[in-house]
Amino acid sequence: MRIGEIAALVGVTSRTVRHYHHIGLLPEPARQANGYRSYTVRDAVLLARIRRLTEIGLSLDEVRDVLADDAGRELAEVLGELDADLARQEREIHGRRQVLAALLAAPPSSDGPLSPALAALLEHAPATGSPAAAKDREHLALLDAAGDEAGAAVFAALRPLAEDPAVLGLYERLDELEEARVDDPRIAPLAAELVAAVPDEVLAVLPAGEPSATGFGRVLLDDYPPAQREVVRRVMEGLAGRVRGREGA
Asked: From which residue to which does any coiled coil extend (predicted)?
């Protein structure tokens, strides 16, 4: 194979191949009598390996270290690893296309494009003009944007809570604290009732650790005025305590 052929086969440019030669990352093959480089299947496998490693975010120095560790491995083993990597990418693409198809088929939403799991949750939530409820929807959409499996599991577990009409009363009580002080006596009982209202099924899918210490937790807290923030902070701590209690049981 010539340089243009190996570059096209692997999906890089000839300039990239020459750069890898220049920095010593890809050994330069011997030239034929006509002056052209002649590449083998082993060269193509090595070039594909470099491309895969750079695509997942490794620097060229890190790629060099990985390739050094790979020295001496059988060609069949390296090919098998590349094949498994391609299969993983195919599964990921297939999953993303399924989500995209569901988004395209869903009716338009003022919350923007939503995953099927969140759309199903909001569909069963009662209509309300509560500002706190609207803010909750925004936070769920933010979690949904992360697109991980944990979010989908949380949305499914929240379904019974969303269908509970008593939750609207809790939202209204949270609305009443919008301009309250952080020492308002209504904070503690409301936080306790909110913690108690969360089904055990939700606890089973909540991530371990203190939610307020995570990036999402900090963003969520910063979105509330002082008294409401204190309620939400206590709810986070209360739920974390319930999770630890389940794990210790």
From this structure: none
